[in-house]
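A note from the maintainers: we've had questions about how concatenated examples are separated. There is no special marker in the raw files; a new sequence line simply starts the next protein. For clarity in this README we add a label.
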Amino acid sequence: MQLHTDTWCSSGGLTVDGNLISTGGFQGGANTVRHLDNCPKSVWREYPSALAAPRWYSTQAQLADGRMIVIGGRAAQSFEYIPQQEGTSNTKPFFFDFLQQTTDPDENNLYPFVFLSPDKNVFVFANNRSVLLNPNTNAVVKEFPVLPGGHRNYPASGMAVLLPLEVKTEDPNEVPDAEVLVCGGSAHIDSYTLASKNMFYEALQDCGRLKITRPNPNWRRELMPTSRVMGDMVIIGKVLIAGSNTNNGYIYDAMYPTELRVEKFSPPYFSPSRADKKPKIVDGGCPKTMTYGQQVTIKIELNEKKVFLKNFKVTMYVPAFTTHGVAMNQRLVKLLVKDAVNVGEGRYDVTCMAPPSSAVAPEGYFMLSVVHNMLPTEAVWVQLK
């Protein structure tokens, strides 16, 4: 599939129908919106003037109403919404003073960390500060305390994740707790500049946790086993690790050559020694589509004679668009499990409730798993709409 615009350091995400929308990039690709449909014979459709501002190192996120927002980028202290009608163009972005305020001489606020909060606002973290942005009024409605320790966004390049959201009630107006975890980065404002002169600072070893849905939250500090910069923070499962390059271009005879191999990491709970205790969703045992608040029964096979409801979880995971330690739109929702019934011959019907609202889980495709005693099934695709 051929591309005509440069996607270097771009952003992206999936639509409700599982189609890819890619935004921004380098030089002639910076104002581009690209569409790739979820079908075998799809080809790229590119619109080089669709965005009002050039978006290089920007972040893209899906909103509760299905729109997509693009925030920041190099020399772009603004945000805008991807045109909902393909082929049309934005005429003007929304100035975002917060990004201007968080720009250092070495920037340190590119690829901002952006998460849809379950109260429908947008959490934006840049450098060492964070706010809630209302996407309906385009106004900042809350600023959180500064995260101490240093600088967290590119090129300081820490990482962040929205921790799993747990649904505990069927009430669609109930806002579940949402907690953000930010780790790593640099304590020094000029790390990037000095690195080009072969002067290297140690990366940050700390993390900060913030419950963004609480009235007056404060950061809670933790330490990682080691310092990290430009790591990837993912909600664990099987992980593909691809690429690595400390060079300007593709160079294979340097001390640290350009790396093109792909590795797969499997966590301990995928050990073959535990395979006989893993649950399995039977063929056709899960609906392919769900609606909000729907009661859903999932049929599984499980080698257990007696089970307890408290040991079951049903999770839905959004696949992320990942680059530079930023996993855009990554989200895992723990559903409300109502029952688990033994229907004979090692089979169980697990009944749960679909997410209560699009603020908890925006419309689109999810990977659904049933978890028993910390062992997950292989995921199946479901569409929430």
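[label: protein 2]
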Amino acid sequence: MKKSASGFTIVELLIVIVVIAILAAITIVAYNGIQNNAKNTKTIAATNAWIKGIRLYEAKTGALPSYNSCFGTSSTYSGNGQCWNGSTWVVNNSFLTAMSEYMGSFPEPDTTQMDPANYPDRRGSFYQISGGSSFVWMSLIGVSTCPGLGGVTFSSQGTGSNGIYCRYIFQ
């Protein structure tokens, strides 16, 4: 009687390992993309809500708010509390007080760093007054183009190691 060998050859095992590795890589890439989409959706939704609140403020008062501020609450941005690189880019309580009549809550954007290597505090979104104009800035992760937002006009964009920042102007 002939005894037959059972089991897998080394080649068969290597093929199975390679296939598993390829499937794992595809899954990880897809998961990261889904995570980034969720973070960006949170930031876009929060920014849109703030823009609507700012427009309501403008409709009632006849002017846009006169305070620079990060969007969210004082606990939105961990660490030094900044949403942009500069000590003045924090959530401004005077801005929150002015906006409280026009917003049911203060929506929080995602705070993932869009350029952690070069500018460790560029994250989330904020409202800025500069040169007589009012702007909204927003950081997005893992994308290359800025979305259109209602109530503002796209102005410019820049890139970071982990994403982009988008600037919109109130007109």
